[in-house]
Structure formats: C-alpha cells, structure tokens
Amino acid sequence: MANSYVLIDYENVQPRNLELLRNHPFKVFVFVGEHQAKLPFDLADKMQLLGKEARYVKISGNGQNALDFHIAYFLGELGIHDKDAHFHVISKDKGFDPLIRYLRRERKMHVHRERDLLEIPLLQLPDTTSIDEKIKAIVKNLGGRGQSRPRKVRTLENTINSLFTKKLDPKELTALVKEMEKRKLIVIRQSNVSYKLPH
C-alpha cells in the first residue's frame, strides 16, 4: 500500500481532531514557526498517540510565507523519494494551489490541499463503503478541482484510485466510472470525459 503523508501548516490551521489519523496509514508532519515557543498540551498529547509516524518540523527564519516554503520543500523532497505516495497539505492558504496543480499535472504526484483533516477522503469513508458513498466522495473531490479535472477516462480512473488511497480493483474502477456516466455526472465520448457535476 502506498504511503500517505499529512503536512500541517500549523500557523494557518490548528487541528483539534488529530485523533482521526489514528489507525490509518498516515505519516504526519506539523510545521511550526521559528518563534512558536509553546504548543497546546492537546496537540502534543495527540501527536504522542500517533507515535513514530508523527513529528514536528520547526522552521528556520521568519518572514512572509517562510513556513509555506518549508512545506513546499518537504513536499518535493518526499515526492522524489516516495513517488507513489499520497500527500495532503492541511492549510487554508490558497497560495499552495498553483504548486499542487503543477505537481499533479507535470509530476503526476497524488497531492491535495485540504482545509481540515476531515476533508481527507479516507477519513470520510468507512471501511465498508457503498458505491453511493464512493461516488459522493468522487464528485466532491472533482468539484473542488475546477478546470484541472481529468479529461481522459484513464486519468479519471487514476484520480479515483488515488482518492481512496487503498488501491481499488480495476473492475471496480471501471464500474465506478460507468455508474457516474449512468447517473449523468460525466459524459464520455471515445476516451474523453466532460462533466455535469451538481453545483
């Protein structure tokens, strides 16, 4: 199974639900500012419960976007050494989006920005997930991609597969795409995909 990394921009988001990451295959990095002298006990306690899979990264220096640049560096470094991994940047900062679009499109990395841990698809889905729940999660993910939605059936299948972290059977991927077509969420002409997602 591919590794999944969660990179938390602690200057921007202070998650109060880190316990959601327990019992899931996440490696967690919490990035804190150089002058962040104290962290809440609640955060430290929950990080400790995650054991060796969790670590703090205290950045060097300060200034506008200093922490963001550290996250971007780690994202690139981890992506080089773990090409099949899935990455989740937890931040409300839309400044990450152009980099994330580039990494997905040009480097074929599985990377997303979420504003909260609860937006990570794997945390929304129980182990026994119905086809309705899967399609709901797929539509939500595609809806947030704007113009960067997959344009080919193969790319759409790869996107769906990366969304669920646990690799799906090829037959299940095909069935999900066909079900989306049946529900008129997508239109397939030859191998091209266009979208009719709800607003």
Number of helices: 7
Low-pLDDT parts are none
Structural class: alpha/beta
Sheet with most strands: strand arrangement:
3-2-1-4-5
Find the CATH topology of the largest domain: Rossmann fold
Question: Which term fits the overall shape?
Answer: elongated
User: Biggest sheet, open or closed, and with what strands and sense?
Assistant: 5 strands, parallel
Average predicted local confidence, pLDDT: 86
Give the amount of beta strand, in percent: 15-25%
Tell me the Rg in angstroms: 18 Å
- The CATH architecture of the largest domain is 3-Layer(aba) Sandwich
Number of domains: 2
What do these coordinates show?
It is a single chain. By secondary structure, the chain is α/β, with parallel strands linked by helices. It folds into two domains: 1-124, 5'-nuclease (Rossmann fold, 3-Layer(aba) Sandwich), CATH 3.40.50.1010; 126-199, Arc Repressor Mutant, subunit A, CATH 1.10.10. Helix content is 38%, strand content 18%. The protein contains seven helices and seven strands, in the order E-E-H-E-H-E-H-E-H-H-H-H-E-E. It has helices at residues 41-49, 66-81, 97-106, 121-124, 131-143, 153-163, 170-182; strands at 4-9, 26-32, 54-58, 86-90, 110-114, 186-189, 192-195. The protein has a five-stranded parallel β-sheet with strand order 3-2-1-4-5, sandwiched between helices. Strands 6-7 form a two-stranded antiparallel sheet. Strand 2, helix 1 (41-49) and strand 3 form a beta-alpha-beta unit. The longest helix is centred in the middle third of the chain and has 16 residues, at 66-81.
